[in-house]
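User: Predict the structure for this protein chain, please.
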Amino acid sequence: MSKNMRDRSRQLRRKATDAEARLWSHLRARQLSGFKFRRQHAIGSYIVDFYCHEAGLVVELDGGGHAEELQGQYDLERSQWLESRGLRVIRFWNNEVLGNIEGVVEQILSALGSTASRKPPSP
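Assistant: Here is the predicted structure, written as structure tokens:
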């Protein structure tokens, strides 16, 4: 990982949104069925919000700006690139995380269950 990517990842971790902080409180320290998650993790030229290597799962949180057409196209291309490397990408709106954290955690658990039997990808 380049120094620029490492610095950007650190900056994003320090400036986490409320939704990122809320979800991280449920994912950190192997709290979710023993799966290890990393936050603001670099994969290729992208920095993903949350990443579980052993399940090959990327969890992305989107705010209102992601509803705009250009951002939506960028998100689609980014997800396709990650998926082409054998990763599964799931997305949640920030308001989902803030208003229904239990439902979001259940969906992540379900995704972990459906990906856990796969061999971890090598991005």
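Strands lie at 38-43, 46-52, 57-62, 88-93.
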